[in-house]
Amino acid sequence: MNQVIEITVAANGATTVETKGFVGSECRRASQFIEAALGQREEEVLKAEFHHGVDAASQVRQAE
User: Fold this and answer.
1) Phi, psi of 57 (to 5 degrees)
2) Which 8-state DSSP code applies to residue 2?
3) 3-state SS assignment for residue 41
4) C-alpha pair distances (Å), 20 with each of 12, 31, 34, 38, 64
5) Average pLDDT of the residues of the chain
6) Where does the pLDDT of residue 62 fall: very low under 50, low under 70, confident under 90, or very high at 90 and above?
7) Alpha carbon distance 36, 30 (integer Å)
8) Are 43 and 61 in contact (CB under 8 A)?
9) What does each C-alpha distance from 9 to 1, 2, 6, 62 come to in angstroms?
10) Residue 13 DSSP SS3
11) Residues 49, 55: contact at Cβ < 8 Å?
12) In the chain, pLDDT over 70 holds for what percent of residues?
């Protein structure tokens, strides 16, 4: 699977950063600079793949 960082911006300005295709905590390292640029993190959801160490994925919602 390719490594992808998907950024979604809602009409109200809220952003979601989702990583796909990363192993373990690589997803956090890969998206760290984007999260820092977007501001304070509101919520983090770690998908099952994160804990299994295979094609980890996470989703982070930034504060509005």
Assistant:
1) -145, 145
2) -
3) strand
4) 25, 11, 15, 19, 23
5) 81
6) low
7) 12
8) yes
9) 24, 22, 10, 10
10) coil
11) yes
12) 78
The pLDDT-based confidence of 52 (bands split at 50, 70, 90) is low
pLDDT of 20-42, one tens digit each?
A: 888 778 888 999 999 999 988 88
Whole-angstrom distance, CA of residue 63 vs CA of residue 56: 23
Q: What is the pTM of this model?
A: 0.72
Residue 17 phi/psi, 5° resolution? -115, 125
Alpha-carbon Rg of the chain, whole angstroms?
11
Provide the residue count of the chain: 64
How distant, in Å, are the alpha carbons of 9, 13, 41, 59, 61 from that of 51? 27, 30, 21, 14, 19
* Tokens read off for 39: 């501001």
